[in-house]
Amino acid sequence: MKYKRPAQWVDIENEMVWTIPLTRGLFIIVDECDIDLAFDNWHALGKGYGARIENHERILLHRVILVRALGVLPEGEWYCKHLNNDVQDNRRSNLQIIYKQKTAKRLKGTIIRKRRWGARITINGNTRRLGGYATEEAGHDAYMNAKYC
Q: 91 and 135 in one domain?
């Protein structure tokens, strides 16, 4: 079995935290209550996220910590945001759950730019702008007129 470096107790930003070593010389910062995760074999992904493989699935360390902090697996589609944008800082105070929102379907032929609705149509690979409009419905009407007239 390969030797694994032990977790270390370090001072970061005047706060004592634990670091869990990853592959490629990287490490993950965690709170003391999550230090038991150091006993699993974590590796570094391309951008520095901590991950492990379990039952042929990739498990991300920051998601494990967030679920443990919440005490329950969140429902629906969600992702974990690092508040300070440091993917190696997995302290509970740095993680936030973000629920994915379903995007509303736009009416055909409409776009929104600079808080105004616009209309455009593509004919034979050429896109033509049809103008700017105050509402999405007005832009859709312009599209339908161009399409059928």
A: no
